[in-house]
Amino acid sequence: MKRGLALILVSFLLIGLLAGCSGEQKAEAEKTKDGKVIVNFWTFWGSETRRPIIEKIIDDYNTSQDKVFVKHTFLPWGDIWTKNLASVAAGNPADVIINDINTVSQRAENKQVEDLSKYVDDSFKQQFYPHLWETVEYDGKAYAVPFNTDTRLLFYNKKAFKEAGLDPNKPPATWAELEEYAKKLDVKKGDNYERIGFYPLWGSVGASSWMTNADSGKGFIDNGKLAINTPKKVEALEWILGWKERLGENTVQAFQAEFGSEQANPFIAEKVAMWVDVGTFYTQLRDYGQDIEFGVAPIPAYQEGTGNFAEGGGFVAEVPKGAKHPKEAMDFIKYLTGVDAQKYWAVKNYDNVANKEAAEATVDELEGDDKTVYEATVKNLEQTKMFPIPVDYPDYHSRINPQVDNALLGKMSPEDALEEAEKDVSKMKK
User: Fold this and answer.
1) Which H or E element spans position 295?
2) Are residues 123 and 60 in the same domain?
3) Are 310 and 316 in contact (CB under 8 A)?
4) What is the pLDDT of residue 29?
5) CA 195 to centroid of chain Cα atoms
6) CA–CA separation, 39 vs 62, rounded Å?
7) What pLDDT, on a 0 to 100 scale, did the predictor assign at position 78?
């Protein structure tokens, strides 16, 4: 009995000793051996291309000063969001995380992210494109800093233009011209299409983009008011259906069944003559479509003078709620979103960045088609619309998309579909 009791006492002593060591290690882990504060930085950039780029930026920051050491952790896309929320709830989050640009307000309202207002002033804000900075503010306070973004352009095949008798240096400027050009660019052999001039739902573009374009750049929620069932959005859906009716459902589905990436992309395979995509699509075109003579232009306007509106997205750097080192985290974020780091990211990734000076410097550094396309994307940011998720209508797209799909499938008229969508979304308001 005495021997058993002694073993139990020894076990408790060992557990206590190990717990003490664990606590000491945890405390020490917040600083390096030479006293630098460790800032834990989570991203989903783990590819062979992007990971070396972000880690080079981190290394440059770490060697640029002697107070902070940034430690990078890669988490797969999807996992990073759930782990972030779980770590915030547990009170042990990362210090900096890369997150979605259009949902900052949601996280701010839910107290999942730190208020960064005391670290920024007007001169800092002015470094960024205004439409991007607007996405990171909630109730007049900044809860993140824009990192990168995107925009959509019309890519067109100049050789196909010449074959169709079109001026290769004059892309379509309006929807009417887009239809006119597309019909001339179609190539049919019997009843089958060998090449389709254009189809509005192919590429990195959806029905919502065309509805925004037609409706003077308005999204589904405009200044806090619903703008779903509007005459122009109804007209845009009817316009999309007109393309499907002209080409035929079977033709559209047959072409889509063969779509892929790289050489199998229909624009690169020269099966589609005009294609809307994000600016970074150019890297696929550059690497796998070397023989294609192409041009880029803004998305055609609904009518002359109504605006070449495109939709954009992107990511921000933010400090999760409860982070241990918000001040040091913000110091790193300022470096990450500064001119040098942003330019390096832009040049190496061929990515649109949020810092205006860095974007312009990237244009100056590039040459040839690299420069032409990147410059077009930077200019296009002036007409790129961001649609942050309002706190009053969380996940409103889940109420709209099924109704839009019903319209595109012919199950409902566009007007009935959008009317139903607006009713569904109106029920969400808190």
Assistant:
1) strand 294-297
2) yes
3) no
4) 60
5) 30
6) 10
7) 86
Q: Is residue 6 part of a domain?
A: no
144-157 pLDDT tens trace: 999 999 999 999 99
Contact between residue 210 and residue 414 where contact means Cβ atoms under 8 Å apart: no
Amino acid at 414: P
CA 227 to chain centre: 23
- 25 sits in which H/E element: helix 2-28
Query: Is there a single domain that holds both residue 325 and residue 414?
Result: no
- Express the helix, strand and coil content of the chain in percent, nearest 5 each: 50, 15, 35
Residue 430 banded pLDDT, cuts 50, 70, 90: low
Q: 189 has which bridge partners?
A: 192
**Is it the case that residue 6 has pLDDT exceeding 50?**
no
Residue 5 lies inside a defined structural domain of this protein: no
Average confidence (pLDDT) over 290-300: 96
Cα separation, 190 vs 301, whole angstroms? 33
Q: How far is CA 73 from CA 22, 32, 97, 204, 331, in A?
A: 21, 16, 10, 29, 18
Q: Which domain holds residue 245?
A: 152-311+392-426
**Number of helices (H), then strands (E), in the chain:** 18, 17
What would the 3-class secondary structure string for 139-203 be? CCEECCEEEEECCEEEEEEHHHHHHCCCCCCCCCCEHHHHHHHHHHHCEEECCEEEEECCCCCCE
DSSP H or E segment with residue 120: none
| CATH (domain of 202) | 3.40.190.10
The Cα–Cα gap between 144 and 320 comes to 10
Residue 13 has a pLDDT of: 37
**Which H/E stretch holds residue 27?**
helix 2-28
Q: Which of 17-31, 44-58, 174-188 has the lowest mean pLDDT?
A: 17-31
d(CA 396, CA 216): 21
Residues 373 and 282: beta-carbon distance below 8 Å: yes
Q: Are residues 221 and 302 in the same domain?
A: yes
- Euclidean distance between CA atoms 85 and 414, whole angstroms: 38
Two tokens, residue 407: 């319209």
Q: How far apart are CA 377 and CA 152, in angstroms?
A: 8
At 14, which amino acid appears? Answer: L
How many C-beta neighbours within 10 Å does residue 233 have?
A: 27
| Of 205, 197, 194, nearest in space to 273 by CA | 197
Enclosing H/E stretch for 98 = strand 96-100
